[in-house]
Amino acid sequence: MAEVSEFVYAYFISKEAIVRIKLPKTLNRSFEHKPKVVFCNLHKTLAEDMGVFSHNHIVYMVGGFHGWSSPYEYDNVYMFDPTQFDERDFPVPVENIEQLPYSKLAPMVNPFVIHIEAGFYLLTITDRICKSSGVPFPLRFQHFDPTHKVFETWPPPPLYPQDCETSSLFPPLRCYFLIRGYIYLCMGGQTRTHAFKFNTMKMESEWECCNAMLDTFDTKCICFPFGHFGNVGISDEFADETWILVFLNYAQPTTYYVTLHDDGYIVPISSRF
């Protein structure tokens, strides 16, 4: 999302177009959310299944995929500054999109984007085609530094546990989110769900299994926020060292009253829909 004064702009990408929606920063029930098509007919110029995110008004379009019979994954990065155009000029010709050279992006298809203060993390599958071999889909994990406009490849999540469901087109991701510098990732299995965490605040960090955290939720009969993808709403810390987290659990807003340990473990106290 790109911030401009008292508003923010959210960008959405499809096979055909990039759409921008203007949103107020504060609650305003009378505000009309009018979507604007920024670009159209993208498939004629750019790859399919690109990732899109924005920083300081600059919209980035990364990666992509082309072809089913002979699939090819792209490592291209494109930039566009919508503030250089009046909304009356939308949709803008795609010739105004600038390609970013030397970005060091590894090929990514439809990446999941996680925004942190120091940049963006992108997580993606590396094979868009569902193979009949049953081989688990590998994941790719990268960090984007918007200051220097370069990507860095980080350690990918561990290989899927043997009981993970790998027969579907996409990997069995049940949720991913960021809390206080930790990225959490859950993958569904035939016998249980597997959880991993990654410390973005530690140099040379590695993914760690945290299934015990899920077991704590089960023991307390509190449903883990499966179905949430992206950033999480978080309160300030209370005097008793507890927090309130807000998730979109399968589009159902859910609050969790928790304690957050320095090692990244989330200990639930209660939850409310």
Question: What can you tell me about this protein's structure?
Answer:
This protein has one helix at residues 211-219; strands spanning 2-4, 7-13, 17-24, 36-40, 51-55, 58-62, 65-66, 72-73, 77-80, 98-99, 109-116, 119-125, 139-145, 150-154, 173-179, 182-188, 193-199, 208-209, 229-231, 233-234, 243-249, 252-260, 266-272. The chain is globular and about 55 Å long. It has two domains: 1-156, no CATH class; 160-273, no CATH class. By secondary structure, the chain is mainly β. 3% of the residues lie in helices and 44% in strands.
Summarize the structure.
This protein is mainly beta and about 270 residues long.
List the helices and strands and how they pair.
Layout: E1 2-4, E2 7-13, E3 17-24, E4 36-40, E5 51-55, E6 58-62, E7 65-66, E8 72-73, E9 77-80, E10 98-99, E11 109-116, E12 119-125, E13 139-145, E14 150-154, E15 173-179, E16 182-188, E17 193-199, E18 208-209, H1 211-219, E19 229-231, E20 233-234, E21 243-249, E22 252-260, E23 266-272
Parallel strand pairs: 15-19
Antiparallel strand pairs: 1-2, 2-3, 3-4, 5-6, 6-9, 7-8, 9-10, 11-12, 12-13, 13-14, 15-16, 16-17, 17-18, 20-21, 21-22, 22-23
